[in-house]
Design a protein that fits this description.
By secondary structure, the protein is an alpha/beta fold. The protein has 13 helices and 18 strands. The strands form 2 sheets. Strands 7, 8, 9, 10, 11, 12, 13, 14, 15, 16, 17 and 18 form a 12-stranded mixed β-sheet that branches. Strands 3-2-1-4-5-6 form a 6-stranded parallel β-sheet, with helices on both faces. The longest helix has 21 residues.
Length: about 425
């Protein structure tokens, strides 16, 4: 059996999971790929017990890989779109080494260049673990759905955000409290900015969009809005209306343009995505041959993500894979992108107003001016001590986003409006 020499850069949560699975299932993996695994080098900034890796070089700095060549495969688990992660991946490819990465930031920013370089060197870049943790969505899109034309992808792609929204509704606690709870349980990083502002979802969505619609990865063309301003009040009202609020990533072709949107939206609580809670991810793929494929699983964590990392080992053993992948990337194009102002759909408004005569009439008049038809309208009692304020909750029939923005601007300027209007989009999933 030939050797497969592996160098691992980064032994944090996922890196440690990779080592655990390699130790636990080494024989099974070796029989599957037809090669004997040898870990020739590990780079880890954290001090760990590597005494069992007696024949492995241990580096405290991943920069050491730039002057190291005794490996066939680099597994990059450092993270970040630039810096040393980018340097060692490019260096490995130039040395004609295969690469596996869980780094969605790197792929979403530099994927076009990295894949082109890999193909020119006739080597493989595996990035299954960069999207949706333990859900093998890249393989599903690239291989399982090869006979289908993808029409739309809708997904909950960030476990941290989903946990926060689920627990806020369940416990009736505010955003900050649940965020701290997520950190305490290890579901959120010490700096969770990319999770809650939607960028983590945008990274993943841009990758899925590219392989689904054959467009070049362009993170700047993704419309992104996060969950940092969500209040329990809206989660409660949405629930009363039969909805859940979820941070969604959405991509499809609309009038020959690629739509890539990330935003919190209302989904029917009896729908597939409406029932994906806590740290789980859920993805719906609609194709020309099947109405919906639904995939659910753990979107993060050591072993689920490590499972995706090691799933790429088998693909490396396929001699025709790199050539096949090269053929696909040669056809990538820069398509036009569907802008958020062009969206046509339903909306949820919460308007906090002073409880005075004529308020609803004034709001209705503005909505009518911009062709926004009211589907439901409820006046909710104020839960705070000030009884002179009420929440007016409205859902609309389908209308144009650009008209919604104009109407809300006028409603915000009404003397009766106490606070800026809260707006969420409503999605059918």
């Amino acid at each position: 059996m030939d050797d497969l020499k592996i160098a691992i850069a980064g032994v944090g949560t996922v890196g440690n999971g990779v080592l655990v699975l390699l130790k636990k299932n080494r024989k099974k993996i070796e029989n599957k790929i037809g090669k004997k695994i040898k870990i020739t080098a590990i780079a880890s900034r954290k001090s760990r017990d590597f005494t069992s890796f007696k024949k492995t070089k241990i580096f405290s700095d991943a920069n050491s890989f730039l002057n190291f060549s005794d490996y066939d495969l680099l597994i990059e688990l450092i993270g970040g779109s630039d810096g040393i992660a980018k340097e060692i991946v490019i260096d490995a490819l130039k040395k004609k080494k295969n690469v596996i990465t869980a780094n969605k930031a790197l792929i979403s920013k530099h994927g076009n260049f990295i894949l082109k370089l890999a193909h020119s060197q006739k080597v493989f870049v595996g990035y299954e673990a960069s999207v949706a943790g333990g859900i093998p969505i890249i393989t599903i899109i690239n291989n399982f759905l090869v006979s289908n034309t993808i029409k739309k992808i809708s997904g909950i792609l960030n476990g941290t955000s989903n946990y926060i929204l689920s627990k806020m509704l369940e416990t009736k606690k505010n955003f900050k409290t649940i965020l701290n709870d997520a950190k305490a349980h290890g579901y959120a990083e010490s700096d969770p900015s990319f999770d809650i502002n939607g960028m983590d979802t945008a990274h993943k969505l841009s990758i899925m969009s590219s392989i689904s619609f054959n467009n070049k990865i362009d993170l700047e063309k993704v419309f992104v809005s996060g969950i940092e301003d969500i209040q329990y009040t809206d989660l409660k009202y949405a629930d009363e209306l039969g909805f859940r609020i979820k941070l969604l990533g959405l991509t499809k072709i609309v009038r020959s343009k690629v739509m890539q949107f990330v935003y919190p939206s209302l989904v029917n609580k009896k729908s597939l995505l409406g029932n994906v809670d806590n740290v789980f991810n859920g993805i719906i793929i609609e194709t020309d041959s099947s109405k919906k494929f639904f995939f659910q699983g753990e979107g993060a964590g050591a072993l689920p993500t490590a499972t995706s990392v090691l799933s790429d080992l088998e693909r490396i053993s396929l001699t025709n894979y790199s050539k096949q992948n090269y053929q696909n990337t040669k056809t990538l194009t820069m398509k036009d992108y569907f802008k958020i102002d062009e969206r046509y759909g339903s909306y949820y408004f919460r308007i906090k107003t002073f409880d005075v005569a004529g308020v609803i009439a004034d709001i209705s008049k503005i909505l009518k001016k911009f062709n926004i038809s009211i589907k439901t309208l409820y006046q909710k009692d104020n839960t705070e001590k000030n009884n002179n304020e009420v929440n007016i909750v409205i859902t609309t029939h389908n209308c144009e986003e650009k008209n919604v923005r104009k109407a809300i601007n006028l409603i915000n300027n009404l003397d009766s409006t106490k606070e800026r209007v809260v707006i969420y989009r409503v999605e059918i999933t």
